[in-house]
Amino acid sequence: MPAPEEIKIHAKNIDAAAREIIGILEDTSIGNVIFVRGWRGFGASAALKAVAQRLKSSKSTFGRVVHVDCSLWKSMRALQKAVADELELPPSVMAIFDRQDEEDDFSGIDEGSRGVIPDIRTEIFRKLAISKFVVIFHNGIDKYIDLYECGVPVIPILNNKVLWTWHGRFRPDFCLEYTMEQHTDVVVNYSHNDWICGKALLEEAKEVVTYMGIPEPYMNQVIVEKCFQYIYALGSGRSPYFGEWRNHASNYLVYDGIIQGQGDTSAWGAADALQRNMHLDWLFLMSIGDDIRRHLQCRLHDRLVLWEHKDDVLPDETGLLHSEATTFFIVPANRYGTRMTTLREGIFQHSHSSKLRVLHLSWCGFSFESPPFLCCSQLRFLQLNECRNIPSNKHPSHNEDLSCFQKLWVLHLRYTNWYRLLSEEMMNFMADLRELYVQRVKGWSISDLRGRGPSLVKVHVQSDYSERVPDLRKEYYLPDLSTSFLKTVILVDCVIVQQVVSGMLPPSLESFTFVCDYHSPSPIISRFSFQGCSQLKSILLKGYLVSLKELDLSGTAVKTFDLREVKAPNLQRLILLGCKKLCAILWPLENRRTNVLKVLHIDTTRSTSPGQANWEEKPKDQAIFLLLLLLNWASVDMRPLILNGTSLQGIQGSLGRLNRLKILSTVMYIWKWVHLLQVVLLLVTMKLLKESGVCASLIIIYMQVMPSFRATYKLAPIMKV
Question: Rounded CA gap, 703 and 710, in Å?
Answer without folding.
Answer: 7
